[in-house]
């Protein structure tokens, strides 16, 4: 099948179409990273999995390797939500577990019609235009998506509806605090504990390659790696992700200086994640 057009989670129009008609505003993409950071004005550059920012920094995603790396929307769609709807969208506002495996960034359960009628391997732009639709920013469709996702701007807790998750799931709220599901409602988690972990390892010929890969992964966003160590760290729910294990990775910094590798992590956990957190505190992730 090869490459195919992927579409914006908000408006359902393509992010990477080769059609000349689609190359105006549609090729400017905003990445909503799973640590809730936001990267504007990126461009898809390699078969719907690689996006470059203005500094040519590569952000990689793949349902096979890192299915939770980021969500992509058009930069103009994001700006419309901020200006017209008062919502500065971030990763935690979306139910990422509902992302369709058959089409990157499409959210299962959201009705994207009539635009979705023109999805195929390559968006059928000619038929779309002949049907009387425009390639201008589809404001009505964006509002409809936000409405279906039940994203609210005035919540202290998470913007997304609690109905997407189950009891005791954790997620960061709009106030920067951790919230928990209790009887299908968001309540502020009172028993959250922050813990900073620090690992320092001398570099040897044996471990140099894997330590360089860890630094690359966490310093230059996402790249394809089959390393079990990187996968183990990457499995920790990050700040923008819902956590069902009682632990959230708030931030991480990995670097090599001189002949030493250092990695610092800050995790947040509640009572349900206490045992697993204690294991992490004693762990070096197999890096030594």
How would you describe the overall organization of this protein?
- The chain is α+β, with helices and mostly antiparallel strands and 288 residues long.
- The chain has six helices and eleven strands.
- The strands form three sheets. The protein has a five-stranded antiparallel beta sheet with strand order 4-3-2-1-5. It has a three-stranded antiparallel beta sheet with strand order 6-7-8, with no helix packed on it. Strands 9-11-10 form a three-stranded antiparallel beta sheet.
- The longest helix has 12 residues.
Give the tags.
single chain, 288 residues, alpha+beta, five-stranded antiparallel β-sheet, three-stranded antiparallel β-sheet, 6 helices, 11 strands, 19% helix, globular
**Count of separate DSSP helical elements:** 6
In angstroms, what separates the terminal alpha carbons? 42 Å
How do the SSEs run, as a string of H and E?
EEEEEHHHEEEEHHEEH
| Share of helix, binned | 10-25%
**Could you give the order of strands across the largest sheet?**
4-3-2-1-5
Q: Output the radius of gyration.
A: 20 Å
- Main sheet attributes: strand count, strand direction, barrel closure: 5 strands, antiparallel
Mean pLDDT comes to 84
| Unreliable spans | none
Q: Shape, please? A: globular
What is the percentage of strand-forming residues? 15-25%
Content-based structural category? alpha+beta
Would you report the number of β strands? Answer: 11
């Amino acid at each position: 099948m090869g490459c195919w057009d992927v579409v914006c989670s908000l408006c359902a129009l393509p992010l990477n179409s080769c059609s000349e008609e689609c190359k105006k505003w549609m090729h400017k993409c905003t990445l909503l990273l799973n640590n809730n950071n936001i990267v504007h004005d990126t461009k898809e550059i390699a078969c719907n999995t690689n996006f470059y920012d203005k500094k040519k920094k590569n952000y990689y995603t793949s349902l096979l390797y890192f299915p939770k790396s980021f969500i992509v929307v058009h930069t103009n769609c994001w700006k419309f939500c901020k200006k017209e709807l008062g919502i500065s969208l971030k990763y935690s506002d979306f139910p990422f577990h509902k992302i369709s495996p058959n089409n990157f960034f499409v959210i299962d359960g959201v009705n994207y019609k009539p635009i979705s009628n023109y999805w195929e391997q390559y968006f059928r732009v000619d038929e779309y235009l002949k049907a009387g639709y425009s390639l201008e920013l589809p404001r009505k469709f964006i509002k409809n998506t936000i409405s279906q996702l039940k994203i609210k701007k005035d919540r202290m807790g998470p913007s997304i509806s609690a109905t997407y998750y189950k009891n005791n799931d954790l997620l960061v709220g709009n106030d920067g605090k951790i919230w928990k599901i209790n009887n299908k409602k968001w309540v502020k988690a009172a028993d959250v504990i922050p813990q900073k972990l620090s690992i320092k390892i001398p570099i040897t010929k044996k471990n140099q390659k894997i330590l360089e890969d860890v630094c690359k992964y966490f310093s230059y966003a996402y790249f394809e790696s089959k390393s079990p160590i990187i996968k183990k760290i990457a499995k920790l729910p990050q700040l923008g992700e819902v956590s069902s294990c009682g632990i959230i990775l708030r931030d991480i910094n990995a670097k090599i200086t001189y002949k030493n590798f250092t990695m610092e992590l800050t995790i947040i956990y509640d009572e349900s994640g206490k045992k697993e957190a204690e294991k992490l505190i004693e762990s070096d992730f197999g890096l030594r």
